[in-house]
Amino acid sequence: MELDTHAYNDYIASLFAAPDSALTETLADMERGNIPGINVSAVEGKLLQILALAIGAKRILEIGTLGGYSGIHLARALPEGGKLITLEIDPHHAEVAHRNFERAGIGHKVDIRLGPASTALQEMADAGEPMFDLIFIDADKGGYTEYMRQSLPLLRDGGLMLGDNTLPDAVLTHEDSGTKRYNTAVALCPELTTIVIPILRQHGLDGLTVSFKRSDGLALKGKEE
Ligand SMILES: C[S@@+](CC[C@H](N)C(=O)[O-])C[C@H]1O[C@@H](n2cnc3c(N)ncnc32)[C@H](O)[C@@H]1O
Questions:
Q1: SS3 for the chain, per residue?
Q2: Which numbered atom of ligand 1 lies nearest the CA of 39?
Q3: Which of 19, 30, 192, 213 could form a disulfide with 67 if both were Cys (CB 3.0 to 4.6 A apart)?
Q4: Is the CB of 39 under 6 A from ligand 1?
Q5: Ligand 1 atom 26, closest CA
Q6: pLDDT tens digits for 13-68?
């Protein structure tokens, strides 16, 4: 039976994650552009922002831009001179996101890279892209594990790797969309200390997998050696 989380979510959202006009317009713009509402919730957007602020993120990589809703939350956590690089395969999504970043006044902090994420990540590795403080994976679930492996060398020590929508598919379905494999891969990765944070939705629960990087291989695995 699905947990009715509506009231809990609304309480948190109204007190801590009330939308401003840029966020409201972003969602309206997506709807007008027939872009599916598969963005993070307002509450999760605020959580992403707080995680970025907590580690003093100056460079953030997002995989999966959509209309720019999560990107606005992340870019707002950046100081002046900070950068959000966000990867998107769909030109229409990228165009709408560009408009929304500009309207939100953070366009100068955002670099949208169009094309398959795996190609963009390979190009970054080849070009010697500077390290990121935070990486947020929120694209095709089948690609999550590969995106994690490709982008982990680009994450600084003490940085955060985040994977979205990692709970229901991993637990409730027999077929793995990719998130179960992702959760297993980060759990076993010697460089990462990981937990899944359950995320309230209007209806039901989802999960955000949060991994902290320690490249000395001394990640805390929560089990006896
Ligand atoms: C769940 S949505 C992202 C939501 C967004 N992060 C937000 O919360 O506002 C996933 C996005 O990933 C994009 N995508 C899917 N496969 C991709 C790929 N192989 N490379 C890059 N982007 C991809 C989709 O076009 C879609 O815009």
A1: CCCCCHHHHHHHHHHHCCCCHHHHHHHHHHHHCCCCCCCCCHHHHHHHHHHHHHCCCCEEEEECCCCCHHHHHHHHCCCCCCEEEEEECCHHHHHHHHHHHHHCCCHHHEEEEECCHHHHHHHHHHHCCCCEEEEEECCCHHHHHHHHHHHHHHEEEEEEEEEECCCHHHHHCCCCCCHHHHHHHHHHCCCEEEEEEEEECCCCEEEEEEEEECCCCCCCCCCCC
A2: 8
A3: 30
A4: yes
A5: 66
A6: 999 999 999 999 999 999 999 999 999 999 999 999 999 999 999 999 999 999 99
